[in-house]
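Q: Could you fold this chain for me?
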Amino acid sequence: MKIIITGSSGFVGQNLIRYFERQGVTIIPLNLRVEFPHSIPSANALIHLAGKAHDLKNTIHSEEYFNINYAKTKELFDLFLASDINDFIFFSSVKAVADSVNGILREDVIPRPKTPYGQSKLKAEQYLSSKRLSGGKRLFVLRPCMIHGPGNKGNLNLLYNIIKKDIPYPLGAFKNYRSFLSISNLLFIIERILKDTFVPGGVYHLADDDPLSTNEVIEIINEVTNKKTRIWAISPSLIKTLARVGDILPLPLNSERLKKLTESYMVSNEKIKKVFRVREMPVSSHDGLVATIKSFTDYSL
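A: Sure. Below is the predicted structure, expressed as structure tokens.
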């Protein structure tokens, strides 16, 4: 099997390469930053990871999102349609659907993204879905929630560093539940898609089975680090005021990061599990987070 991967230098790309190369799969990295190709090599599948990530500091112009997330995806998909490649796997995002979620996010929701990042991803999805597929080709539009795993930085790492320094967690008054996606479960999903030709193409939301509150994530960090973090229930209005100050000054907390840490964002994975005919993902939400937090401990030694 041969797989073309764009965005192969990123966290997901590096994990995909290591995972499939151990199985004897030939990986062909495709760097869209150097020069856009006029054609693409023969392969079984093309996994399109490359894109402009959501900028938490809001310093990127909206045109850049659309030039990269939409225009380049459109050009690449046109090359795929003219090629002998069977499968096109596009990594979109749940943010292409909604920036905030009331209840649980499922595939049948009407997309209403509010940011240029989400809007550019949705526009790419709409173009891909508008094209007719022939010759047994399949299109998969994957919308993962927050992906994590050993070596991955981000808000989990920020939370870990706060707890490691014995700093009390000040956001205990915020009641929330969030979905996460372990890199192990993501690899399981990609492998099943590539190896099972009976899996129908379509739009799929990707998440671990059980959403967790931030306070529960802290408990998992305590479990791994053998610490007992104090959780303070400081007034949310005061915290939000401090976050707005962080929007202007270089503070550890700003409004976007506060939203990431405290909002509820629950994502259903029932559709992909029904297609795979599995009741549970291979790795539980708890065990996936334990593996990620342990990697922070290893890297800090």
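A (continued): The beta strands are 2-6, 26-30, 45-48, 87-91, 104-105, 138-144, 146-148, 180-182, 202-206, 266-267.
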